[in-house]
Amino acid sequence: MLPAVVKLCCGISYPHLRSTAGLQRTAVAVIGQEITHLQGWGQLQHHWRIHADLTCDEPKAEDIKPLSAKDQLFYVQKGQEAMRKALSMLEDKEGWKVEIAESNGDVICSKVMSGARKVFRLEAVLDTSVDELHDLLFVRVEEMHEWNPSIQHIKILKHVGPETIVTHETSAKTAGNLIGQRDFVSVRQSCRQKSIVYLGGAAIQLDSLPPQPGFVRAEDGPACIIIQALDGDTRKSRLTWLLNMDVKGWLPKSIVNQALPQSQLDFTRHLRRRLTVGSSHMTNCTLHMTGHN
């Protein structure tokens, strides 16, 4: 089935990546056959949630029709391509410079890529499992605005398969935000190899969803997040996040290069708060069920 084939096609292990040229050609051919066996769109509709408070335009009707095998393969390949490019950036150890080192151990480094764009790498340790982070950051991505005030909404436009989705994201309007509101249309890919989860993504164009009024259509990626258990401790996870973004517009690079790493710190802070709240809720539920006050 497709999930296993996608993992095969990723063929990745961070920090030592394997060459996958021959593997990719074989796996892509297999994916073309497997996609025809995907379950119908109707069986995926229970994942589809419509937010009643959206302020942006809704996708057109044709955007929620079942995808053809050709379109499914296209999005899967785009997701895998974004993953490979992002991991290649992380694999190259040359040129990284420390931007921010927090007292809690979070570190952000930057590197100047071709075209003079800076990418940023966050390293953080979180008190949660790999599975919970994968659930929050990929499976339940549409709920992200509930705990991250920087996001106005994220909506899944296309469920391509269990490990590939296409999303529309808008940033929230906040006081003092020099960059202003952006929106993104991205393909997102999930891939697991043993105890490590890889989340990759990149911008993609959809004719049915042009740039929204009041927003600048920014481009994300190739970018990725790597989640792995910390030294065998399943209660802690190391998160590595490569942020690679073109915010578009007419902003000076100096402002953008200050705002992007700060957005990583803010995101991580909100994520930790969400994990703390979730942990407290589970503890209270357990105490209630066992009859403790």
TrEMBL record:
Mind telling me which GO cellular component terms the entry cites? mitochondrion
Q: What is the first-listed, main subcellular location in coarse terms? A: mitochondrion
- SMART domains documented for this protein: START (SM00234)
Protein name as annotated: START domain-containing protein 1
Write out the GO biological process terms: cholesterol metabolic process; intracellular cholesterol transport; regulation of steroid biosynthetic process; steroid biosynthetic process
Give the organism the record lists.
Answer: Echeneis naucrates (Live sharksucker)
All residue ranges annotated as the START domain in the record: 92-280
Pathway where it operates: Steroid metabolism; cholesterol metabolism
